[in-house]
Amino acid sequence: MAPFLALVTVTLACRLLGALGVGYVQTWPDSLAVGLAAMFLLTSSAHFLQPRRDGLIAIVPPRLPRPDLIITATGILEIAGAVGLLIPAATMPGIRTAAAVCLAALLVAMFPANVRAASGERHPAAPRTPLVPRTLLQILFIASAVIVAVAP
Fold first, then answer.
1. Torsion angle of alpha carbons 48, 51, 54, 60, nearest 10°?
2. What is the Cα–Cα distance from 24 to 7, expressed in whole angstroms?
3. What is the pLDDT of residues 3-42, one digit of tens each?
């Protein structure tokens, strides 16, 4: 729930700033990009900080090797993507779009771990959101990334 709240709160705060004349966040997609960046920075912290890190390692599907490295790599990718979302299109064309597309793909790739977390095979520090709400949140996050990616 915290990632959802971060996305919504930061997006709305940025949109308010945009309405007050802050050029960086004058459009909904610009504000949404900052909200997504905040969300991914928040979620990436769990990839490195205990006890959440161990919880994430525990939900990596067992057929994948080195779940510890996978969690580290996905955390780094989330941080890199968040930084990419913060680069305005006017400054470096294509970076924000590429970051949004890559983050959407990362969310899809990580979904099997979410299914495993919801299946009852849990570490005490693993995410505890049931599958239906977790799926709906993933769809919202992916849709947000797509909006940012296709925005002019």
1. -80
2. 17
3. 999 999 999 999 999 999 999 999 999 999 999 999 999 9
| Contact between residue 18 and residue 26 where contact means Cβ atoms under 8 Å apart | yes
Structure tokens that stand for 36 in this block: 């997504």
pLDDT value of position 120: 66
Burial class (CB in 10 A: 0-12, 13-18, 19+), 67: middle
Calculate the CA 29 to chain-centre distance.
15
Q: Classify residue 88 by burial, with Cβ atoms within 10 Å: 0-12, 13-18, 19+.
A: middle
Kindly state the DSSP code that residue 24 receives in the 8-state scheme.
Answer: G
Determine if the pTM surpasses 0.90. yes
Spatial CA neighbour of 129 closest among 146, 141, 143, 144:
141
What is the mean pLDDT of the segment spanning 58-83?
95
Q: Which residues of 94-130 are buried (b: 16+ CB within 10 A; e: fewer)?
A: ebbbebbbbbbebbeebeebbebbbeeeeeebbbebe
Helix (H, G, I), strand (E, B) or coil at 149: helix
